[in-house]
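Marked as duplicate of an earlier ticket. Keeping the data here for the record.
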Amino acid sequence: MRHATLEPARERPLAPARRGALTTLGLLATLAAGACGTSVPAPAADVLITNATVWTVDPDQPRAEAIAIIGARIVAVGSNDEIAAWQGPDTSVVDGAGQLVLPGFNDAHIHLMQAGRRLLNGQLAEAASPEARRPAAELALAHAARLGVTSATDMGTTAEDAALFMELAAEDALTLRLYLAPMETDWQDQANVGIRRGFGSAFLRLGALKGYVDGTLQSSTALFFEPYGDAPGSTGMLTEEFTPFEDARTRLSSADASGLQIALHAVGDRGVSMALDLYEELSAVDPTRDRRLRIEHAQHLVDADFDRLAELEVVASVQPYQAIDDGRWAEERIGSERARGSYAYQTLLDRGARLALGTDWDAGPLDPMLTLHAAVTRATLDGWHPDGWMPAQKLTLEDAVEAYTLGSAYAEFQESEKGSVTVGKLADLVMLDADIFASDPRDLPTVGVVMTVVGGRVVYTTR
């Protein structure tokens, strides 16, 4: 069993720096007790989850039966008998009844307020009135909790959105940990006040930037080296934001020098290659710096760029649902040969790249079960590829879950804080009503969430 000695429960999460001090104090107390011939009993946990099937995403302890939580953090992971030692008179005990417990899902790419407005207004995502902004955000947060999503990176966050999230955080009303990535054209707003990547609290952080290199395959604006098969006069286009490219290079070089993390939307193979060219230039300046540059979508790559992406340690932030959506018609647009390097998640892993999974909600559904189903089956939405479109690119379920938890945490510099069921990490968990590792992958869309826990607090339950 793995355990840590932490101070008694608090309503707010323990700060990372303080947690290191507590670990040291716990070790000293244990040594002192050993010298006196006595033992130090475990403090009582606030919450125990027992009789569960825990898939930890921690290679040092892959499976467990039970978890102990104090405050916002995990203090022990082990067998039922081992975790029973943490029970006290006031401990809340959750009987897992054999159900599967995973780290909470971390969506690497969403648009929260746009999604909230759509939930509030049906299919209309127009700008909400000031009075409707908070209800839209609350609907989006509740939807995420119902689906077991406990963290997300919000792309293209506006100043008004950030102010609302700060208001919710101040009221302890956030049930989703958010990493905000405003537009890169406004990089000075963060840099001028000294914000760097990952700045903020456990629930709300800034320090990232979102940019658009090219457009989309569907609109024929994704930028390719060769013309579209169904539009031979076009290879796509750079966005206005990246025209001329030299201006974007200058702007992003300054943003990078200020310590901000850059995440660029790049879809076509030439768009991805140009993003990698830029990242190669940035990385040549202080090459030892941990930048975790990101390419959002990374849908189409020429073969050489799979290796280059891995060598530059760029995070591929991908959305598998787009593969089963676009796979219905992508070959008509770009041909079978180029399609073999499209949505190539297994090739990315094989070449050594890091994956972070997400949905682009509300452009795609937020439900992690639909994302996992897309990643492991690649069965297109039209039913024409039941065994998978480009089946060599299917991910294993284990790899997909890891990319959706620990991979997305890494993409936001938070792998030491969340992404696995590990002692000392935040107690962000999801309990499912079926063991997805023991089920037919085709049944993933039918799997539901029984309970979602964020920082040791139940934010959704069907019980």
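See parent ticket for discussion. The first strand starts at residue 2 and ends at 3.
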